[in-house]
Amino acid sequence: MSQIIIQKETKNDCEAKEKIGTICEVQKNSYVIKYLKEEINAKLKGSFYHTESEFPVVGDYVTFIYNPNGDSIITSVCERKSVIKRPYPSDHSMTYGRNINGQVMVANCDYVFIVASLNNNYNFNRIARYVSITLQGKSIPVVILTKVDLCNNPGRYVREIEELSDKVKVHTISALYGIGLEELDEYLKPDKTIAILGSSGVGKSTLVNAICKGEVMKTSKIRESDSKGRHTTTYRQMIELENGARIIDTPGMRELGMCDVDDGIDETFSDIAELETHCKFSDCKHDTEPGCAVKEALKRGTLSKERYEVYKKLHKESNHAAKMKKIAKMRRKL
Ligand SMILES: Nc1nc2c(ncn2[C@@H]2O[C@H](COP(=O)(O)OP(=O)(O)OP(=O)(O)O)[C@@H](O)[C@H]2O)c(=O)[nH]1
Ligand SMILES: [Mg+2]
Fold first, then answer.
1. Pocket test for ligand 1, best of 219, 223, 227, 234 (most atoms within 8 A of CB)
2. DSSP notation for 147-192
3. How far apart, in whole angstroms, are the C-alpha atoms of residue 245 and residue 181?
4. How far are the Cα atoms of 72, 115, 174 from residue 62, in angstroms, in the given order?
5. What pLDDT score does 3 carry?
6. Do 265 and 167 meet the contact criterion of CB atoms below 8 Å apart?
7. What span, in angstroms and rounded, lies between the C-alpha atoms of 237 and 160?
8. Which atom of ligand 1 is closest in space to residue 199's alpha carbon?
9. With contact defined as beta carbons under 8 Å apart, do 56 and 64 qualify?
10. pTM for this one?
């Protein structure tokens, strides 16, 4: 269909008219744009390299000038409705890098599937962190606990995630044995975009293949010695399902660092954020101050100590990121 449309246009028409497509793959300096049903290779317009404009990421809508004889040219990135961000790999690059606000990994996702496997990979703090980052970036977090076929007591983990936040849904699945997959249909609707995030080896690509009912992504066995994955997926890739839903498979991450995501943390732990508004002093540190609603809830047992510790730890990290950003801003002004 799209091919017909593209072929009908004369060369001059194609060069003159800007089109809008979606970035479905990024590799070093080359991009693949999904335009109708076509995949079009593209490069960035030179001005991207001389200005502060953000480079496109998978999920971005971009304007481009179609070139039937070679790489098309991306001219701009459309406004993003949601992002998943992380800090640049080191404090150094965060300070001197082109964007001190952090590195956008994927854009315009309606849902983020936060994938953890139920064999040695489950880590409550890590999931809380992913949820906060997702909410901060304006996507909806969905926790997917995979490899349920290898776990005797999945209910324990499900309850823990349900108690983490009322903003989060949780599903247990086995992509290998087709267990629980039908529960995901509610997200896989036409025009919805879903990013799949999680550590290497948890079964992200196996899940993509199960959803697509075919081997779209390469998968490989985890190491037997420590159950860790082998970083099989090496770049982010968007796959469109027949019904028009889009899934973005991503490489496994060792750790997802945090930018300043205070709002996302407060949204995740909305009960604690709400409690804080009842403290006598607005700048209460929940330490020795009188009239502290948080300490009172901890004493009464209506707030669990463990949950509060995770909340505090995430805020501490987020505050550090905010400080780094301030320093970077000041350095830029010098
Ligand atoms: N038992 C069991 N094994 C699974 C399940 N899902 C995936 N696996 C296995 O886990 C291994 C890793 O799966 P992948 O899909 O490659 O993992 P990944 O998360 O994409 O890993 P990276 O691409 O490295 O980030 C493979 O051997 C899969 O067969 C499951 O539901 N049950
Ligand atoms: Mg993979």
1. 219
2. -GGG-S-HHHHHHHHHHH-TT-EEEE-BTTTTBSGGGGGGT--TT-
3. 15
4. 12, 28, 36
5. 39
6. no
7. 31
8. 25
9. no
10. 0.90
25 beta partners: 32, 237
Query: How high is the pLDDT of residue 224?
Result: 77
| Dihedral, 47, 52, 53, 57 alpha carbons, nearest 10 | 110
What's the pLDDT at 10? 47
Which ligand sits closest to the CA of 181?
Answer: 1
The number of the ligand nearest the C-alpha atom of 220 reads 1
- 193 CB neighbour count, 10 Å cutoff: 24
How far apart CA 271 and CA 277 sit, in angstroms, is: 10
Q: Cα-atom radius of gyration of the chain, to the nearest Å?
A: 22
Mean pLDDT by 10 residues, the chain (334 residues): 41 66 93 95 93 91 95 96 85 50 92 94 93 97 97 95 95 97 97 96 97 94 84 94 96 87 96 95 92 96 94 92 79 69
Ligand 1 contact via 175 beta carbon (within 6 Å): yes
CA 327, CA 321: separation in Å to the nearest integer? 10
DSSP character at residue 58? B
Cβ of 117 closer than 6 Å to ligand 1, yes or no, is: no
Provide the pLDDT for residue 105.
95
As given in the structure block, the two tokens for residue 195 are 């990013």
Residue 221, ligand 1, Cβ within 6 A:
yes
